Amino acid sequence: MTTHSSTIVRVLCSRVSEHTGQAITVQGWVHAIRGMGGLAFVDVRDRSGIVQCVLEGQLAESPLSLESVVTVTGTAAASSKAPRGIEVHASGVTCISKVEAPLPFEINKKNISARLDTVLDHRVLSLRHPKVHATFRIQSALAGAFRDYLSSRQFTQIFTPKIVASGTEGGSNLFPVDYFEQKAYLAQSPQFYKQMMVGAGYERVFEIAPVYRAEEHNTSRHLNEYVSLDAEMGFIRSEEELMDLEQHLLAYMFERAAAECEAEFALLGVEVPVPGEIPRIPVAEAQQILQRKYGKTSPKGDLDPEGERLICQYASEPNKPAFVFVTRYPREIRPMYAMPASDNAALTASFDLLFNGLEITTGGQRIHDYEQLSESIRSRGLDPTHFAGYLDVFRYGMPPHGGFAIGLERLTSRLLGLPNVREAAAFPRDRTRLTP
């Protein structure tokens, strides 16, 4: 194999057609190799796509293997027989990094034929598959659109601690951390801090960051570490404003992702929905619908996974994705900071957003009065002094406020129709998985 001058600029595979007749260099991974009558056709894959390279004579004997990293120099040429109408007639090939072990599964097929555990055990390799690659390009676009939409509406991006002294939910689903002489935990949510930042005068804040839940679930819908898209805003009149915000936010996110990732959605065979007016159903009414239409009984004041799926089925239009806000949850199943409903103190001004049968968002208005919040904390059998750092801001003036959090992996998995939320996490952390 020969090495050619580094003065020839690297061209991405997707842009080779812009350089027809020119000497170029492409670099990437060997995606496929086909031999034919003294020729070798080598597909090279980079972050942008795949291009066919034609090797003749001695070059065709190059000892290349699938997934090796290579540099190919040559001339870009149009070809009606090439898979994408363009190919590179190679004049030199250099293997930068060869593959030394047999691959645990093939990634140049339409889909990966392996169990999910095997795929995740070899995650770096599976991430190279074009469909998996597309998943995370789309996820990146969703997160970027979330940031841009809120920034354009005068929300400030914040960065809050992930090592905390107590949980935000007042429960036990916390990961303890050795923190010198003190007890500490991984943060379940940035909830307290985003409220504190609203009260610190920023009024509108958002964060994109991991959160940690020490739940022993081992299901297709749970992760113990996931990315939370959090938003919080002050001077609201009710939780209705928050649902309005999320409805418009999601429409923007999906439209932006569709525009930026047109090829990725096409590869995955996904038509991007654009949420319109999302129905809002009180949880008590949802339970009545489930009982009447499906004979389904639900947990007190809540919906179980089957109930979420069925209420989405009920609310959806034919051949359209289902979005449903479920509202007015009872106080006993909502966090201590949830604002009681204005017309019924036993209920809360809160909501969940369900998307294609799965909860992707929890949100609502928060208590902003110091005494009311302190009493709510005590009513859960907790000591307000343990939350002094959080409560202080309420003593110094807090506007009516609220917010929501979207699970990025759940959002991605529902949008793309992935059967397991782990497939929407680059390196998932679940009940048993700490590597890779």
Automatic annotation (TrEMBL):
Protein location: Cytoplasm
Main location: cytoplasm
GO molecular function, one term: RNA binding
Keyword field: Aminoacyl-tRNA synthetase, ATP-binding, Cytoplasm, Ligase, Nucleotide-binding, Protein biosynthesis
Domain of life from the UniProt record: Bacteria
GO BP annotations listed: aspartyl-tRNA aminoacylation
GO CC term, one of those recorded: aminoacyl-tRNA synthetase multienzyme complex
Enzyme class at the top of the EC tree: ligase
Record's keyword annotation contains Nucleotide-binding: yes
Entries under PROSITE patterns matching the protein: AA_TRNA_LIGASE_II
Catalytic activities: tRNA(Asx) + L-aspartate + ATP = L-aspartyl-tRNA(Asx) + AMP + diphosphate
Classification via Pfam families: tRNA-synt_2, tRNA_anti-codon
Chain sites annotated for binding ATP: 213-215, 221-223, 359, 407-410
Keyword check for ATP-binding: yes
Stored SUPFAM superfamilies: Class II aaRS and biotin synthetases (SSF55681), Nucleic acid-binding proteins (SSF50249)
Enzyme Commission number(s) from the entry: 6.1.1.23
Binding site for L-aspartate: 169, 213, 362, 366
Domain Aminoacyl-transfer RNA synthetases class-II family profile: 136-436
Coiled-coil residue windows: none
The protein's assembly and partners: Homodimer.
Purpose of the protein: Aspartyl-tRNA synthetase with relaxed tRNA specificity since it is able to aspartylate not only its cognate tRNA(Asp) but also tRNA(Asn). Reaction proceeds in two steps: L-aspartate is first activated by ATP to form Asp-AMP and then transferred to the acceptor end of tRNA(Asp/Asn).
Family: Belongs to the class-II aminoacyl-tRNA synthetase family. Type 2 subfamily.
Protein name: Aspartate--tRNA(Asp/Asn) ligase
